[in-house]
Design a protein that fits this description.
By secondary structure, the protein is mainly alpha-helical. It has one domain (about 1-130). Helices cover about 65% and strands about 0% of the residues. It has six helices and no strands. It has helices at about 1-20, 25-30, 40-60, 80-100, 100-105, 115-130. Helix 2 (about 25-30) crosses helix 4 (about 80-100). The N and C termini lie far apart (about 45 Å).
């Protein structure tokens, strides 16, 4: 049952990305083009997602545990370290240069165009490379 729910959730998420146009990298790149063909619709999609997320988290976290797990797996660290800041910067650069982030890139695979495939290969290579980086610990 978990797999079916995960599949349906992924399909719903992908449909939302497709309907909102966020799976189209040109739409995302136009959002970042403030002095050219600026398109504010990405900000509107994000603004619409915020109340949905806020309400969803409030409802879900009132439960003792998720429906298909024995406990919630929420982040506990509040530290801002070099890996987090560097990874965030790298994510932003990749998103700004390609117009893709992981969700829309995966949803775009159904188009069979090479751009999302190249992006996902590069993303996986980056993830493998990051996993091999030594963990820097304060002295």
């Amino acid at each position: 049952m978990q797999v079916i729910i995960a599949l349906l959730s992924g399909i719903l998420f992908g449909l939302g990305l497709a309907i909102s146009g966020m799976a189209n990298p040109a739409k995302v790149l136009n959002f970042f083009d403030a002095f050219g063909s600026f398109d504010p619709s990405l900000a509107l999609v994000m603004a619409g997602a915020l109340p949905v997320t806020l309400i969803g988290y409030r409802l879900v976290l009132k439960r003792h545990a998720p429906i298909f797990a024995d406990r919630f797996h929420l982040p506990t660290s509040k530290d801002l370290d070099g890996r987090l800041i560097g990874g965030s910067a790298l994510f932003g650069l990749g998103w700004g240069l390609s117009g893709f982030c992981p969700g829309p890139a995966i949803a775009s695979l159904v188009t069979l165009s090479p751009e999302p495939v190249i992006f996902i290969i590069a993303m996986l290579a980056g993830m493998l490379g990051a996993a091999r980086l030594p963990r820097l610990r304060p002295a």
